[in-house]
Design a protein that fits this description.
By secondary structure, the chain is of the alpha/beta class. Helix content is 43%, strand content 15%. The strands form 2 sheets. It has a 6-stranded parallel sheet.
Length: 372
C-alpha cells in the first residue's frame, strides 16, 4: 500500500472539510437572504477541452437558474478560439477552468482583477508543463479531486497550500439507485472504460478467467469504446499490440462467450442494473469515478491498488493482484453488501454535497491582485 503518513493526511483532510463547512455556511447565508432583494446574477464561464466530468454540476447550475452561464469549449489541451475566449474575459464574473491545462494558463494570464478564477485539476496535469506556466497570483482556488492528488500537486508544483481545495468527484446517487435482478447480477462483473492500456484489461481478463474456471455462470461485461475506434490508440504501436493480443486471447479462449462489449454510451444507470461487481484493475487513477458509480448502483467494488485508492475507498475493497481479486469475487455475496456500499457513496460523494461545495467556492470574493 501507499507509504504515507495517514494521520497527517487525515488531519489535512479534516482541515479541508472544516473549510468546506465554512464555505457551506457562507452559501447558506447567501441563499437565505430575503427573496425580495434583487441582485445581479453572477456570470460564469466554464472553459476546457473535456467537460464530461463537470456536466452534471453544470446541468444543475443551469436548472437552478441562479447564474448566467457560458461555455468556452477548447479543441484540445492548448487549442482554442482566442477571440471567443477574450469575449468571455470581457463578460465573466467567475471563470471555472475544468482541467489545469492550456485553458488555465491562458485565463490566469488574462483574468481581470474583479474576476474569480477557479482551476479544477484531475491527474494527467502532473505529467504536463502547463501548471508550471500558470500565473498563480491570479488564481483564486485550485481544486483537487482526491487527497492524494491534492498532495501530489502541492509536492510537484509547490503550489501555495492556501490556494488548494479538496472537492471530490461526485455521483448522482438517486439516478443510479435502481433495482437489480440479483439472480443474474451476482454472476456479472462490470468494467467501465478499458482504454488506454494502463486500465489493464489484461489483468481484468486474468481475474475473470480465474473466476470462470470456478463457476461458468460468471460473465464479464465491458462498457467502453473498442481500441480500434480511438485513432490515437490504434495508431500507437504499443497500444495497438496490447489490444490485439487481448482480442486474440479472448477469441481463442474457452470463455469468450462470457465476455461482452456493451459499447460506449450515456446509458450508465440502466447498464449498472445488471452489474453485481464493479472491477478496477488500473495502474493508476485519480479517483476512478466508475467505481463510485457502480457502488451507488449497489455493485460490490474490487479495486486493484493504485496510489491514493485507500484515501477514497475502504481498504477492504482494495486488492493487490488478479488472484486476490478473483478470490474476493468468489467469496463475496454482493447482494448482502449492496446497501452498505450504496450508503458509503451517498455519505461521501453524493452530488448534492459536492454541488454545495462548488457553489460556495464560486461565491467567495476573488483575490485582489491585479491581472496581467
Amino acid at each position: 500500500m501507499l507509504d504515507l503518513d495517514f494521520n497527517a493526511l487525515q488531519r489535512k483532510v479534516k482541515a479541508e472539510l472544516e473549510r468546506a463547512t465554512a464555505r457551506r455556511d457562507v452559501l447558506n447565508g447567501i441563499v437565505s437572504v430575503n427573496e425580495t432583494t434583487q441582485t445581479a446574477r453572477k456570470k460564469i464561464v466554464f472553459a476546457g477541452h473535456d467537460l464530461k466530468f463537470i456536466r452534471p454540476l453544470l446541468s444543475r447550475l443551469e436548472a437552478e437558474n441562479r447564474y448566467d452561464i457560458q461555455i468556452d469549449q477548447w479543441s484540445s489541451h492548448s487549442v482554442h478560439d482566442e477571440s471567443h475566449s477574450r469575449k468571455m474575459v470581457e463578460w465573466a464574473d467567475v471563470i471555472f477552468c475544468e482541467w489545469g491545462l492550456g485553458n488555465a494558463e491562458w485565463y490566469s494570464r488574462y483574468k481581470r482583477p474583479h474576476q474569480k478564477l477557479i482551476v479544477r485539476m484531475h491527474a494527467q496535469e502532473r505529467k504536463t508543463i502547463f501548471p508550471k506556466r500558470f500565473t498563480y497570483e491570479n488564481i483564486d482556488s485550485i481544486v483537487a479531486i482526491s487527497p492524494y492528488i491534492l498532495e501530489e500537486f502541492r509536492r510537484i508544483f509547490k503550489i501555495d497550500s492556501e490556494k488548494m481545495r479538496l472537492i471530490t468527484n461526485y455521483v448522482d446517487t438517486n439516478q443510479l439507485n435502481r433495482p437489480k435482478d440479483w439472480e443474474d447480477a451476482k454472476f456479472t462483473i462490470g468494467m467501465v472504460g478499458v482504454l488506454p492500456s494502463l486500465k489493464r484489461l489484461d489483468l481484468a481478463l486474468d481475474t475473470f478467467e480465474k473466476v470462470w474456471k470456478e463457476d461458468h455462470r460468471y460473465r464479464l461485461v465491458i462498457k467502453s469504446r473498442r481500441p480500434e475506434q480511438v485513432a490515437w490508440i490504434w495508431n500507437n504501436a504499443d497500444e495497438r499490440y496490447h489490444y490485439q493480443a487481448i482480442q486474440k486471447r479472448i477469441a481463442e479462449s474457452e470463455w469468450s462467450g462470457n465476455v461482452e462489449w456493451s459499447g460506449h454510451g450515456d446509458d450508465m444507470a440502466s447498464w449498472y442494473e445488471q452489474i453485481g461487481y464493479i472491477l478496477s484493475m488500473s495502474d493508476f487513477e485519480s479517483f476512478h469515478l466508475a467505481v463510485a458509480e457502480g457502488m451507488a448502483s449497489g455493485a460490490y467494488p474490487i479495486i486493484r491498488h493504485w496510489n491514493g485508492a485507500e484515501t477514497i475507498y475502504n481498504r477492504e475493497w482494495i486488492v493487490e493482484d488478479s488472484s486476490m481479486a478473483a478470490e474476493r469475487i468468489l467469496s463475496t455475496q454482493p447482494q448482502e453488501e449492496s446497501e452498505r456500499v450504496k450508503q458509503f457513496v451517498e455519505n461521501r460523494y453524493d452530488i448534492e454535497t459536492v454541488y454545495e461545495e462548488v457553489v460556495s467556492l464560486m461565491e467567495l470574493e476573488p483575490v485582489s491582485v491585479e491581472g496581467a
